[in-house]
């Protein structure tokens, strides 16, 4: 018999174990991408590969990892695993992500019996390929993106396979960081295994496993109950990618969401065929986006596990952008396509649940990679970072400024860390004024990081979106502003670059990377004038924008609202609008 109190105790215990795994991985990793940006995720799975608990890390990673574990167990059935084994994989057509995301799994044994699987995924700063960072925007096949690792045992009965480690690290540019990060991943799983064994020692193996099953069933029941309250029907939405990195042709992503009695079908039929460039999204990535969007809209408090996926049917026609065939390049799908898939699903929900769906956020993870030979050490380096943008506003309030949204949840390292770790100088790092989508509740501001290449030539990759198509507003809210990439050479010559580019730059070049703002919610003429005055005081909104779009007259000396003039102006603007 299931006890509700014990169920909650077990849920929190498993969650705590997953969180401790994450802390271990972050604190023991060597690359700034993991130890500072926290570009990693950790989770606990049942012995047959179903997600039971996860840390609050990156939605994209954790949504697709349940697909990875099941696929790995096809190559290595649990009967062939021993205590102390660890498996490694990064092949997107098996693991579902992109090559820099390396997954490591470890079976957990209790009194000689396998009981669970510990897993983590970490984004490595380099896994070979044609460019530093292994995410070239112009790759035409996966073979140009880096080293593919099939499921193999990296550790056997507690002994690390140094020959495999040597083979892998010999094919990446940043060997030292690679070795350290792999060992950190193994350490994280080891900590998780130890804690789960301790939990079973306290409650017994059977009880822990029974409650793992009940936690999954609870999430499934909860989501089905949420679905039962929805209006029944089918809603469609289409959004677009601005090229694939090789061509700038617009690519469409179409979804139809059909709500049944206690289930939802998401059908991507009508989405464009797979692209030549690396924006193709494997089915596992597409599934992760669906799981995120449905859970976020319907019941974000549901524990994240296998149960969330059970009420959902997802159709991804083979050979399309959302389910490409081998050897399609896929490295930039995580960065941009995943965000657009989430936008499309949210766009469907917005048509019948406008109170629960925000306006469009920045719509890109904003990849910025610089690599070359560090003149200080004469060794290869790879700086990898993704940048947040504006969050879309919703019925409850403004979107956040300069933050990662939807499928990502990483941090930005301090400028000092970048300058210590790499031959780079951070010239500026700030929010972008006037980039919000105006509304009763405004969207968040985009941000700008300007980085100068010091003492060497380097290879730069920028991968962004929303350079032409603005993040949409809702309920009368206006769209957020576009992204923009600018290179300035040593002579001061300025060039605007495409949203996706991999290119060489000379020493002294400054790269200005501007991310999009978020869409607004509701008419900007309904925004409280004092809020607009506060934005003007904070230098987020200009006086001109406050006047022309929000209809707010502000004293430039005191930043106080001129109430009578504002009232009159808004009346005129409302009449003209109608």
Task: Draw up the topology in text.
Layout: H1 4-28, H2 32-35, E1 40-46, E2 51-54, H3 59-75, E3 86-89, H4 92-95, E4 101-110, E5 113-123, E6 152-156, E7 159-160, H5 162-169, H6 175-203, H7 205-228, E8 233-242, E9 250-259, E10 264-267, H8 283-298, E11 312-315, H9 333-350, E12 367-374, E13 379-386, H10 415-421, E14 424-431, E15 447-453, E16 458-463, E17 484-488, E18 494-497, E19 500-505, E20 510-514, H11 529-537, H12 543-548, H13 563-577
Parallel strand pairs: 10-11
Antiparallel strand pairs: 1-2, 1-5, 3-4, 3-6, 4-5, 6-7, 8-9, 9-10, 12-13, 12-16, 14-15, 15-20, 16-19, 17-18, 17-20
Helix pairs in contact: 1-6, 1-7, 3-8, 6-7, 8-9
Report on the architecture of this protein.
- With 578 residues, the protein is α+β, with helices and mostly antiparallel strands.
- The protein has 3 domains: 4-221, no CATH class; 358-522, no CATH class; 528-577, no CATH class.
- Helices cover 31% and strands 22% of the residues.
- It has 13 helices and 20 strands.
- The protein has helices spanning 4-28, 32-35, 59-75, 92-95, 162-169, 175-203, 205-228, 283-298, 333-350, 415-421, 529-537, 543-548, 563-577; strands spanning 40-46, 51-54, 86-89, 101-110, 113-123, 152-156, 159-160, 233-242, 250-259, 264-267, 312-315, 367-374, 379-386, 424-431, 447-453, 458-463, 484-488, 494-497, 500-505, 510-514.
- It has a 7-stranded antiparallel β-sheet, sandwiched between helices. Strands 14-15-20-17-18 form a 5-stranded antiparallel β-sheet. It has a 4-stranded mixed β-sheet with strand order 8-9-10-11, covered by helices on one side.
- Strand 4 (101-110) and strand 5 (113-123) form a beta hairpin.
- Helix 1 crosses helix 7 (205-228), helix 3 (59-75) crosses helix 8 and helix 8 (283-298) crosses helix 9.
- It is globular, with a radius of gyration of 24 Å.
- The termini are far apart.
- The model has no long low-confidence stretch (mean pLDDT 95).
